[in-house]
Amino acid sequence: MDSSDEPGVTGVMVIEPMGNAGRFLAEAAARLGLRLYAATDEQVHAGYEPWLTHGLAGVCLTELADTERALDDMEVFCRDHRIAGVAVCWELLTPLAALLAARLGLPGNDPLRAKAARNKIVMAEAFRAAGVAAPAGAVVTGAEQAHAVAASGRLGWPLVVKPAEQGGSWGVSVVAGPDGLDAAVAAAGRFTRAEPHGLPLDSRVLLQSYVPGEEFSADTVVHEGVPFPLPVVRKDTTAGTYRVETGHSCPAGLDARTVRAIQDTAARAALAVGVRNGIAHTEVKIPPGGGPVVIETGARLPGDNICEIVEAATGVSEAVAYLQAVTGQLPHIAPTRDEAAALRFLLPDRAGVVEDVLIPDVPGTHSHIDIRPGQRVPEPADSSGRVGHVVARAASVDDARRLAGQVIADSLVKVS
Ligand SMILES: Nc1ncnc2c1ncn2[C@@H]1O[C@H](COP(=O)(O)OP(=O)(O)O)[C@@H](O)[C@H]1O
Ligand SMILES: [Mg+2]
Q1: What is the pLDDT of residues 177-230, one digit of tens each?
Q2: pTM score, two decimals?
Q3: Which of 150, 177, 209 lies at the terminal end of a domain, its last residue?
Q4: Closest residue (by CA) to atom 24 of ligand 1?
């Protein structure tokens, strides 16, 4: 018997569960007694790992880059499988999820505003309209325009140059002066399609004024338009031209008032991009002496194992809360634990072929290696340059950070 025939069992359709958050969604669906279904492309499905294949009750094969076809295929599939909600892991697919939920009459996000959660140019307009604090910016299509904007002095230096539609810090650079601008604009404008689905991208480039200060992320689960704040996470990044995450830790090590201010700002950002029944992952920086400024928000669960860090520290499962929201239930957001967790990535010094990798096995930590000896690792300019990571758990966030930092300091990554 098909699982969807069992009385009382409903399902959730995840548009492309392959990715960091997919694992947490599969676990959360099992906890909630929900069947998990995937929509994906045939050739992407062929590369699914066993943990994902085993977690799925069924798969709708379609072509996610063809919006009309994907909507038609998924609509038929969802009606056949008693689907109670639509979820998504990939930022670029969040507008498609909003359209599907609307077609099916399921709880979802505002399809008319959903593009603002994917495209940073539309996002900046949405933030401006809603009065959400965000960096001043300008849109350009080439280096000449970028030089003209820079010469106007309106955005100051350094300038942040980034693609309109991308993630994982791909193509993002912080430029100190006019000399670096040509390369930065070329790096940001080089994306026309996103793999593995071949989704067409807006290849315009966004220039932003640089926001100094510490960086945090705060997620917001939204039920029927009402935002519920989730724990704030401290984000560590590299400091130069490329801002790559080096780690995440929770709790954020901030006073209660600052945590509240970040959560309020994140909630306002989520609503501004049309999140109504779902989750948003918002990144903010706090300039010295100022309030939180939103760098970006996405209508999706966080990546980078942030779901694991938050649950280890607070007992809150963001994936459970998200599935509750997309199936129209009140999300569970109350912390049940008061501990701490920190994640640190292992990055190479430079690009090359990995010769040797070692992350020591230390009590209170666990680690994972992504790039094995013999494989090529790119320069750590974006999230593809990670060799592995370690997660440390402790009673206090300082201890967790120290432990994770020590493990990374004692790790080895040799490239040739
Ligand atoms: N305007 C800005 N001011 C300061 N830092 C920024 C700014 N924009 C981006 N960054 C840095 O670059 C990182 C990546 O940029 P982001 O806009 O989040 O792109 P992505 O979608 O690739 O994550 C951010 O996490 C932040 O550290
Ligand atoms: Mg980001």
Answers
A1: 999 999 999 999 999 999 999 999 999 999 999 999 999 999 999 999 999 999
A2: 0.96
A3: 209
A4: 243
CA distance 232 to 79: 37
Q: State both tokens at 155.
A: 């955005």
Q: Is the Cβ–Cβ distance between 278 and 329 less than 8 Å?
A: no
Distances (CA, A) of 377 to 30, 109, 190, 385: 35, 37, 20, 6
Query: Based on the domain organization, do 37 and 101 belong to the same domain?
Result: yes
Tell me which residue has tokens 């002066």: 177
Select from 220, 216, 170, 210 the least CA-distant residue to 191. Answer: 170
In a domain, 321, yes or no: no
CA of 135, closest atom in ligand 1: 1
Give the pLDDT score at 1: 41
How many Cβ atoms sit within 10 Å of the Cβ of residue 381? 20
Q: Which pLDDT score is estimated for 53?
A: 96
Pocket of ligand 1 (CB under 6 A): 135, 160, 162, 166-170, 172, 208, 210-211, 215, 237, 243, 283, 285, 295-296
Question: Can you say how many angstroms the Cα of residue 277 is from the centroid of all Cα atoms in its chain?
Answer: 17
Please enumerate in sequence order all residues whose Cβ is within 8 A of that of 155, keeping only pairs 6 or more positions apart, or say none. Answer: 136, 137, 138, 149, 207, 208, 209
Please count the structural domains in the chain. Answer: 3
